[in-house]
Amino acid sequence: MKGNIVLDTNGSDQEIPKFSVYYQNTRGIRSKLSDIYCEVLGENFCALAFTETWLSPDIHSSEILDTRYNVFRNDRNAQNSSKSRGGGVLLAINNKYKCSQVSSEDSVTEQVWVKVCIPSRSLIIGCIYLPPKSAVETYNAHMLSVQSICDLNRNCDIVVVGDFNLPNIVWTHEPDFDGLLPTNITNECEICVCDNYFNLCFNQLNNIENANGKILDLCFCNCSGIELVKCAAISKLDVYHPCFVVYLDSYQDNLLYNSIDSFYNFKRANYEEIGRFLSNISWLEIFSSASNVNEALDSLYSFLYQAIVLFVPVSYKFKSTYPAWFNSRSISLVKMKKAAHKQYKASKSGADYLKFDKLRSQCKESIKASYTSYLNNLETDLKRHPKKFWKFIRTKTRTSLPPQMKYRESILTSETDISNAFMDYFYSVYDDSKFVKSHLKSDISVDLSIITIHACEIDLALRNLDVSKGCGPDGVPPVLLKNCKDSLVLPLHVLFNMSLSSGIFPAAWTHAYLVPIFKSGSITEIVNYRPISILSSVSKWKNNTGFFNVDLQLLT
């Protein structure tokens, strides 16, 4: 069973979306990166939990899963294992949910904990790997982590999945009991896990036996309304580790899968009408009534924004769940597979299952083939379409801000707190001493009014604008300025010279978007980022065209 759609058990054909957690012991992701990446593209799980990932820091999370997921990993390292190979756990949460990693004082156990915020509810998911023949101290360390997380998050539901490597426990159903009860408990590790989880009011739900009739992978939860179902594997199935999906009834997923953004489509703007609109404005009269250059600039922007509303169409961007390399056949097969799965769940017919199974195989093959073809085309067309190639590379290497960040020993999860932390850090490292020119005299005044900018210089600057760049804080893109240059030379000529004669640089042109760029180290540490400023197009001309480049001899 795949996806995050469960049918109403009352016989209604209405689909009730629920929060789904897919679990698998992958027995190594390193050699299956492309397969897993393609397989997950055809699914829409809310969360993915993998054990025995065998990953290392040189493998970027974007190589494993697509951009729909926030990935949290605990790769095997010197702290949690004496071995350098194997092990490791991974949790991935669909980015339509706000989530943050839950810290654990235990550095011995290979585990990762993530808190997921769903409207009116909070859920903590843990993914655990305890290697075979682990000492009882390792199990005790894990249980102390569980105890601590329960104590600090009393109002949260908790689901723990993982490979506990306790093959001798026999799990049985008992009447009037929600979960499974352990029998044949003989050693300290088994006692440690069972006693502690049950004392914390957790139930164990997985009774799917492996090829040897044993159960190594367990699912503990402290909430009701949970369904655990055996499912087909995303990665190549290990017969000793059947995979499963956990569905949470109380976490109905009411969020939209496709979101819609509206934007002004400047590619389809009527620049002829914008130019005519701006040419009919009496700029000299308007600017003469302004008390200062800031007021005059506000008037210019007011008319520009009016022109944008009148002559630039609004378009809508649909954020598709399908990536760029999905062809029509792949999309069609994904939809047909979901429909066949729905039919099988309703009928429980063997014939319907075979139909679903056949479509599932075709879907896998089609997605993998389309992805391979897409990569081959990128390489073949590299010289003719380099932008397309680098756009793909950026999707693989781009480091988006994680949902949880650290600054000065504080863990930050809200967007406001993270933004304020970046502001505080960038301000603390700012050093303006390097901008002081030692050979300049500081006790002289300069009359900027003797400098004049000519209309032909502004015309040249407008012609040389790079229309591929986006908007700055003023919301006016270079493509509009360039296409309407004949109508904008006059107002900009007046504004620049007004600025020089008054000695005031317009406040609106000092505003910038500050974007944190990751340098190196941990992506969760605020101090590992540097800022870049995105300015409005006009405010950058002084650097690109020689505007305001006063001869230093005037100042000496």
Structure, described:
- A hairpin with a 2-residue loop joins strand 18 (405-407) and strand 19.
- The chain has helices spanning 33-41, 136-152, 188-199, 271-279, 283-288, 293-311, 328-347, 350-380, 386-397, 415-429, 455-463, 478-483, 485-502, 541-544; strands at 5-7, 15-25, 47-51, 69-74, 89-94, 98-101, 110-118, 121-129, 157-163, 170-173, 180-183, 203-204, 217-221, 226-230, 244-252, 260-264, 314-318, 405-407, 410-412, 512-518, 529-535.
- The protein is 34% helix and 21% strand.
- It is elongated and about 95 Å long.
- It has three domains: 14-252, 4-Layer Sandwich (Deoxyribonuclease I, Chain A), CATH 3.60.10.10; 261-298 and 402-555, no CATH class; 320-393, no CATH class.
- It has 14 helices and 21 strands.
- It has 556 residues and is an alpha+beta fold.
- Strands 1, 2, 3, 4, 5, 14 and 15 form a seven-stranded mixed β-sheet that branches.
In CATH terms, the superfamily of the largest domain is Endonuclease/exonuclease/phosphatase
CATH-scheme architecture of the largest domain: 4-Layer Sandwich
The tally of beta strands, per DSSP, is 21
Query: Which residues form runs of ≥5 with pLDDT under 50?
Result: 1-16, 253-259, 543-556
- Beta-strand percentage? 15-25%
